[in-house]
Amino acid sequence: DLKYILNRADNVGVNVDTFLGQNSYRNKYTYFGKVAVIDAMDYCQNNIFYIKPSDYQLETVYQFLFDDDTGKIKEDGIRDMWNNNSGDLVLYNIRDVEMTQKIIEEVRLFEYVSLIQDVAPQDIENIFFNSRIIENILHHRYWPDDVYLPTKREHDKEHFQGAIVFEPIEGKYENACVFDFSSMYTTVYISFNISPETYVGSLKEVKENIEQKKEEFGFEEVGNLIKIENDFETSCFLPHHVKTGILPKLQKELLDKRNEIKAQRDQYDSDSIDYQMLDEFQGVFKRILNTIYGVT
């Protein structure tokens, strides 16, 4: 109920900074000493996509998950207990805690945190921000190899034309088939070894400065380079046998973790809560993998 306490303090003119200190307690998380506080309902709303209750109040989420409305009280129930029966008010608050704990266990919030921590130890609030997760993964993985990444900088946003999406022509078609590119962004990164430190240059630039490029990047012939053509130029990247880039390594590790969770998921019936939760967990890694494309 932290956010309600904060709102009440604002309404009555109490400056909570005086005794809580300057911190980030008005966000999804807060620290009191070394204790992190996370709103479980915010977690359900932002991270769990297989449940869609009408709202994310505690009682509503509890009833949705367990088909149990015993946590609900009448609209004036709190005021009545406050004025007439403080004992019932205490029991009501205990019930709130028990309901929250049961929801946390059902949606496996701590298992989700542990999954992220297995990939790269970091502060708990980072689990709500994919960009922070990726930054910490990169730092955690490559510091032992004496690879130090620059501090993130703020840049002015640049606008560019996006992809062209054609509207389908309505109608009935025969002999239709569907093609699905499995883990498209990830596969492209890994296959073509795309990473800032493996980028040799445009094919034109490489040919014009061939000896310098060979000495700088350690490849033998232009024909050994991985080439990606687009409408503007042909980009050249180092082959894996010369050097595998940081981003392909990271993508491969996250993809292996995702596939491991999918294998665990497939041991359960597709209608079971275990299947749905593990499917959600593998989806976490899918979102992180796709986010790398935008973050980097």
What would you say about this model in short?
This protein is mostly helical and 296 residues long. The chain contains 13 helices and five strands.
Total helices: the number is 13
Question: In this structure, how is the largest beta sheet organized?
Answer: 3 strands, antiparallel
The SSE string, one letter per element, is HHEEHHHHHHHEHHEEHH
The number of distinct β-strands equals 5
Stretches where pLDDT is under 50 for at least 5 consecutive residues are none
Alpha-beta classification: mainly alpha
What characteristic shape results from the CA principal axes? elongated
Radius of gyration: 26 Å
Instruction: Please give the share of residues in helix.
Output: 40-55%
Query: N- to C-terminal separation?
Result: 37 Å
Round the mean pLDDT to the nearest integer and report it.
Answer: 81
Relative strand content: 5-15%
Strand order of the largest sheet: 3-5-4
Protein architecture, described:
With 296 residues, the chain is mainly alpha-helical. The chain has helices at residues 2-11, 17-20, 40-47, 58-66, 77-84, 86-107, 109-119, 130-142, 184-192, 203-208, 210-217, 246-265, 273-295, and strands spanning 29-32, 35-38, 199-202, 226-229, 234-237. The strands form two sheets. It has a three-stranded antiparallel β-sheet with strand order 3-5-4. A two-stranded antiparallel sheet has the order 1-2. Strand 4 and strand 5 form a beta hairpin. Helix 9 (184-192) packs across helix 12. The mean pLDDT is 81.
